[in-house]
Amino acid sequence: MNNPCIPLGTLDEFVARHIGPREDDIEAMLALTGHDSLDALVDSVIPASIKGSSVLTLTPGQGEAEALAALKGIAANNQLYSNHIGQGYYPCHTPAPILRNLLENPAWYTAYTPYQPEISQGRLEALLNFQTLVSDLTGMEIANASLLDEATAAAEAMTFCKRLAKNKAPAFFASRDCHPQTLDVLLTRARPLGIEVVIGDEAALEGQPLDGYFGLLLQYPASTGAIVDHRALVQRAHAAGALVSVSADLLALTLLAPPGEWGADVVIGSAQRFGVPLGFGGPHAAYFATRDVFKRDMPGRLVGVSIDRFGKPALRLAMQTREQHIRREKATSNICTAQVLLANIASMYAVYHGPQGLAQIARRVHRLTAILVQGLRQLGHHVEQAHFFDTVSVVTARPLADVLAAANAARLNLRLIDDLRVGVALDETCEQGSVEALWQVFAGAGQALPDFAALAADGADCLPSVLLRDTHYLQHPVFNRYHSETELMRYLRRLGDKDLALDRSMIALGSCTMKLNAASEMTPITWPEFGALHPFAPASQSLGYRQLTDELEAMLCAATGYDAMSLQPNAGSQGEYAGLLAIRAYHASRGEAGRDVCLIPSSAHGTNPATAQMAGMQVVVVNCDERGNVDVADLQHKAEQHKARLAALMITYPSTHGVFEDVITRICDIIHACGGQVYLDGANMNAMVGLCAPGKFGGDVSHLNLHKTFCIPHGGGGPGVGPIGVKAHLAPFLPGHGHLPKQQGAVSAAPYGSASILPITWMYIRMMGGAGLKRASQLAILSANYIARRLEEHYPVLYTGENGLVAHECILDLRPLKDSSGIGVEDVAKRLIDFGFHAPTMSFPVAGTLMVEPTESESKEELDRFCAAMICIREEIRAVENGTLDALDNPLKNAPHTASELVGEWAHSYSRELAVYPLADLRESKYWPPVGRVDNVYGDRNLACACPPLSSYQDA
Ligand SMILES: *Cc1c(COP(=O)(O)O)cnc(C)c1O
């Protein structure tokens, strides 16, 4: 009984929760690959030249409860002040039903980007609502499905104007009344493209010629609060052939004449205050809206209405040919992962409140601000704006330092604009007490406070009468029927039920690493200690965040072998951009500013060439051989040919083909010998953590996708975090920010980008420990090789390493089947839906193939279920090949099959059973797609990107 040797142990060891296969499963899987241990398998997968380069300490992880407690301790070092800083970030209420049924609901947050529309109708509808919300409020004809943040959206607007304006002058005018962080990112993005940004006072443009500008950026209301009538300026800009972009506040637009009504060509901004917490700067959805004539040039993803094969309305991502993954070095934007989850929160906020509710919130904020201002004037302060919405700037009657000290004592943040002025912004969460607390801060000793009731009775508002909104918005029924909680809850459930996310089955998306997003990792992101911090509050209030980011940077350095890390980029694409800028700045610091050639293998992800383009580099494509590997002779030749101008090589490792190329160290040596730097795209880091380290085997800089390898959920297409790790020599060139000590320009609006989701990765690493992380990589490799072995007799596995093994993903070649059966990769992808599976990555990096990445989180049972589906599909293809199934009327060509199709007249040459229950266990649990196969061409020809009238659904 009393054996003293029984160790206490941890009760809730996380590693075994995160990793799917059990011990005996692992043995069986290893046996199939012909190895007797994980170490032996990995030993044959990882090339000798990089083996052992990992510097990760193999410590054990912490239990879930223990790690959460540790993080709670860190969070306690953040101070919760009342925030009146404004400047693009406003406290708001996340409606509880949206918090619980959307933000905290895996049906929403574990979904992938909606590239497979038939299993994505729910989130596509939510995004269509977002687009409708934005185009209605801005008064524009078309809006996209989100961008990364307001500042990068402004940068996209700048380059958009440059492409489309008649005026080909080199300069862009940006109002000094834009948010400072917007101007900062604008300058960063303009420099490599040779765009001159002129920051100035638009009032001073009066009477000045505008021919020198291809475009303008104005802010409405201004960053410090004023509402200015820009109509005459817009007319003059148009007369000069320039385009006008406006950064606008969506809440203010419920009361003010929208920019679309006074001539703006582009309207951008943030949807944060529609229910998304401050989160120390992000993630938040930015928006981008424009005129119909410019729609084909819009950056980012666009949801459009099309029809399915029964003619029923169905949604899908429209005009994908505009996107970076197609246009590559001709791309005009590199945005890939966006902010879908946050856009969906904002859209549901509008669905829940409706047009009257939103206007009511806006009017209340404005009234409180007007009362506040009257009181401040009574107290003798000079409020600069005659017309404002919710923000003003104040020249204080008593010393500014005294006011700031009083604000600090009252635990309240104001915006310090300059030596003379403070800014004050109110928001949805403010009430009478907030206004009185502010008066108290501004009042001198012994000064009587204004009488709130008396001022409130007075009732005047301070919106300019010439710019009052007199047009309707959000008239569509979707914004007018879900105002009770019961109705909203069911709407969210209905939409969630239409989609296939990780809460239903595995999503084996090569390159995208759809692994477990554990509940314990997700829990902290909605703690107020992380959610309620303003990114520009004094640093003394965010010591908890500082500890979190310091520790996370150290963890990620240990995982990659790099010396320094920047957490600022809010997607992988932004990390690529920050990395290439660091390389350029490094070369320039050595007097080699002329180095501007970027070598990129033909197999690269589309964001690589798009990013190089944005960084002002010239892309030179390097060939790949028939095995999918980089053609080293071609690489050597091109590196030497461009030796004098070689800036960088961008290379993905393990390769986009899912193989550890053993020549990687030689490739890095060739580039270094020619004076270039190696950008190692770290999207495939899930094959390497704990096994080998890019920072030690030749990389100078890499981005990581925390939303792939490090457990941040995909959110249906964002948020993401794309930190970059660099070797020491590049550390001085990491992104800076007005609120960071570093000197370089910013790439994101907030100093730590999408700060509030960093706890997810911190929790993951802390709970796994170095040992668990290494095991995760080993299991990811084992699972991919297991699938490759199980499926290779049915589908050829396209690329393997020297030893016949793959890394953490494998490519199934379906091209030969097209000739023998007419069945293509898309048919197989759609048929998988009938089996309840999301398709693997289609036609990347090789057209006509499927790239399967199972990840370590899937159990052997789930892997087997997937293999069974793929094998069953292969049998169906064989039946088409030998004529047992009709060449055109077969379950593959007609997939996916909907429930309503079954109850109609059955006109097919195969049975209903074969259509929907091809495997017996589907009778136990079945996913029913809400629409049949979606017609992309129809939707692109008849482009509609806002909520269609309800009649169009009823007619069909
Ligand atoms: C996902 C991915 C990217 C882009 O990352 P985002 O976070 O979507 O911007 C870049 N390269 C590769 C290889 C990828 O798989």
UniProtKB/TrEMBL annotation:
Its cofactor is pyridoxal 5'-phosphate. CDD domains: GDC-P. Pfam families: GcvP2_C, GDC-P. The modification N6-(pyridoxal phosphate)lysine is found at K708. InterPro entries: GcvP (IPR003437), GDC-P_C (IPR049316), GDC-P_N (IPR049315), GDC_P (IPR020581), PyrdxlP-dep_Trfase (IPR015424), PyrdxlP-dep_Trfase_major (IPR015421), PyrdxlP-dep_Trfase_small (IPR015422). Keywords: Oxidoreductase, Pyridoxal phosphate. The keyword Chloroplast does not apply. The keyword Cell inner membrane does not apply. Residues 776-897 form the Glycine dehydrogenase C-terminal domain. Transmembrane segments: none annotated. Residues 17-442, 471-736 form the Glycine cleavage system P-protein N-terminal domain. It is an enzyme of class 1 (oxidoreductase). Its EC number is 1.4.4.2. One of its GO terms (molecular function) is glycine dehydrogenase (decarboxylating) activity. HAMAP family: GcvP. NCBIfam families: gcvP, PRK04366.1. The glycine cleavage system catalyzes the degradation of glycine. The P protein binds the alpha-amino group of glycine through its pyridoxal phosphate cofactor; CO(2) is released and the remaining methylamine moiety is then transferred to the lipoamide cofactor of the H protein. Belongs to the GcvP family. The glycine cleavage system is composed of four proteins: P, T, L and H. PANTHER family: GLYCINE DEHYDROGENASE (DECARBOXYLATING), MITOCHONDRIAL, GLYCINE DEHYDROGENASE, DECARBOXYLATING. This is Glycine dehydrogenase (decarboxylating). It comes from Pseudomonas putida NBRC 14164. The gene is gcvP.
